[in-house]
Amino acid sequence: MTAQSTKYYGYDKATYEDCRQLIDDTNWNHINILSLWFIIVNLFCVIFSLLDLFSVNQVDIKFYITYGAISIGTFAFSRWFQKKYPHKFVKLQLLLGILLWMVYSIQLSVSQPYMAATMFMIMLVVISFSFITNMLNMLMIIAVQVSVFVYSSYLVKPASIVMQDIYNAVTFTGLAVILHFAFQRTRMQQFVTYQKNTQIQRELEIQSSFDALTSLLNRGRFFSLAGNVLNNPHDEYMAVCLLDLDEFKQINDKLGHQMGDKAIQVAGTTIIENLNIDMSEKWRFQEKVLEEKQSFPGRLGGDEFIVMIRGASDREEVTKLLQSMLDSLNHVEIGELHGIHASFGVAEILPEDRDIDKAYKRADEALYESKRAGKNQIRFSNVEGQGGGL
């Protein structure tokens, strides 16, 4: 095992960085758990001090009240910070927490000079297996804690107690280092396995939902998603557009099927670009559509496409969007292919529409009118389903 892999618990840096979000989430959870535990410890210490139990009365009760108040404030701030800035400054929060617990346990030890330290040893071990950073960082954190502890003990405690503290510190340091590497290596294995399973699920989701050639939704997934949109109560303006490439057979016959596939691919890219859709995270594309009310396109098969348009306020905005899309297609230049012509049929979604098939039928009739009127143009359907001009 190389030094590099030892630093990242047996894995390389790239794998470690891939698991960064899982690592940060784990550290956040453990910060909250330890902060809550710290509150409970100080609460019990206040109670024991009041009742004069377990020799806790040797420490001023104000010490526990002070740290109890600090721990409550730290816990509340940590929760607020985590909600407001998720996955940010986790290392800083972690270091502040460790600093607080270290100062507490060392100050507790110093305040009882005739007793060997116990809380520091507990905190040393708990911190070592609770947090995952990297092996080098944790070794430095442990070294700083133990050095400050031993020095503090040396300054205020009798020699016999100092020797006992040093012996305990050495023993628990070895235990802390071993536990840290063992626990965090196991966690890394779990994270890597989770990442692999997540990647497989994402790839399966993409394969089952998207057309391989165009990166648009396939027919089945488009209608399923459109159905989900329409089944929910909707008062937003929406429209369904059918798009069919004109003279596509001639492209295949004259320029070859490879150019035909290229034309379909470019048409898909053009639709995505004009709708300003981010397709970088396809595995959560459908979730984003529902949450953010985005437009979404699909490929019906062959040279036929379909688009659910959302975010426009009226027919004029839809027309402007589709005209820009048509102009982009008309200006395509790929080898011997000079422009792609297409016919558009558009149906505006009615408030009572709960079935995408009804809107699809109206759009199909409008597409027929577009073809009949000379192709390479946009036609809207009226409420009754008869084709209408722009």
What are the defining features of this structure?
390 residues, alpha+beta, six-stranded mixed sheet, two-stranded antiparallel sheet, 14 helices
Task: Provide the fold topology.
Layout: H1 3-7, H2 13-18, H3 20-51, H4 61-84, H5 90-110, H6 119-130, H7 135-156, H8 159-209, H9 219-231, E1 238-245, H10 248-255, H11 257-275, H12 285-292, E2 296-301, E3 304-310, H13 315-330, E4 333-334, E5 337-338, E6 342-348, H14 356-372, E7 378-381, E8 387-388
Parallel strand pairs: 6-7
Antiparallel strand pairs: 1-3, 1-6, 2-3, 4-5, 7-8
Helix pairs in contact: 3-4, 3-5, 5-6, 5-7, 6-8, 7-8, 10-11, 11-13
Give structural notes.
With 390 residues, the chain is α+β, with helices and mostly antiparallel strands. 65% of the residues lie in helices and 10% in strands. The protein has 14 helices and 8 strands. The chain has helices spanning 3-7, 13-18, 20-51, 61-84, 90-110, 119-130, 135-156, 159-209, 219-231, 248-255, 257-275, 285-292, 315-330, 356-372; strands spanning 238-245, 296-301, 304-310, 333-334, 337-338, 342-348, 378-381, 387-388. The strands form 2 sheets. Strands 2-3-1-6-7-8 form a 6-stranded mixed β-sheet, sandwiched between helices. Helix 3 packs antiparallel against helix 4, helix 7 (135-156) runs antiparallel to helix 8 and helix 10 crosses helix 11. The relative contact order is 0.08. The mean pLDDT is 89.
